[in-house]
Amino acid sequence: MQSVIDVNLPQNRYEIAIAPGSLDNLGNWMNGKESKPLHLGEKVLVVSNPAIFKRYGERTIASLTNAGFEVFSVNLAAGEQYKTLNSIQKIYNAALENRLERSSTIVALGGGVIGDMAGFAAATWLRGINFVQVPTSLLAMVDASIGGKTGVNHPKGKNLIGAFYQPKLVLIDPQVLKTLPPREFRAGIAEVIKYGVIWDADLFTKLEGCERLDQLRYLSEEMLQAILTHSCQAKAIVVGKDEKESGLRALLNYGHTIGHAVESLTGYKVVNHGEAVAIGMVAAGQIAVDLRMWTKEATERQNELIQKAGLPKKLPVGLSIDEIIDCLQTDKKVKSGKVRFVLPRRIGDATVTDQVPPEVLRQVLLQMQ
Questions:
Q1: Which CATH number goes with the domain that contains 10?
Q2: Which residues are catalytic?
Q3: What is the mean pLDDT of the chain?
Q4: Residue positions in the annotated binding site for NAD(+)?
């Protein structure tokens, strides 16, 4: 059971391979024995965090070494609060110490935080070296590892420092999800629900057919493969049409506008990214209902999936509505001083608008306290 999805970009075409057991074959995927040649140099720097590296680092390095690569590694502290320029400096130090060249490759072994930082380091070291994504969390598999968004947080906002930089390959081994903590699995399901709402009504229906979405063990291997394939295909299609978010790609930010504000205002310590996105989707859905853009029944179907996934539907206790509204003004998606929201029109279809009246936004947020 293997899927290979093309991300068709004019200058940076690459593959997303979804293949159970593929982690032990990473080296052959990178040297072209399993797929098309990537023309990578000999030196590889594996970027990970201590917990992931302890679990999968030895296998990753063995696979790369056996395929003829010279391998080095660096571990960064886990957590969104460590997604900073200080962490990037540690990657630069390792790159310098091990004399990485322009033909060398950085491999991101971890979740979205590791992928974002490793990608940004790859984009900026020697003005750009090769980059391969090996996501180990569901959220990274279906979202963060695809599309080339890399970067770090600024104390005043999420992902304000970054670059678009595409990987040479995304290799997804679903089997590594067996060791993923349930809370992190639920965070990934939030992004899967997002794809169902904005793009893929068939995926949404498949999710509705699942009895539970809050833990991996309730999903069959076939269902997991379907979730991964549908989600990756959706993102690949959108990114292929709009690499740098000049239009269509903005749809992928569904739930993220308010979600990022919630993450930032709670110091990335109270809710994780997926939980914040779930809160943001509940808010966006209700805004769309209040603006008569989609139906109450549709938002209830969405919210039932969010509940089935064990994700929050209310704002964290003590969060100020005024602070959220102020924080929205620093969002990357603000244009001409207006906050742009992604709002659903029907299951599988959404649009971007900056015509959300302040009183509607405030009333929805008050209802979510």
A1: 3.40.50.1970
A2: 127, 149, 191, 235, 245, 249, 253, 256, 260, 273
A3: 95
A4: 112-116, 136-137, 149, 158
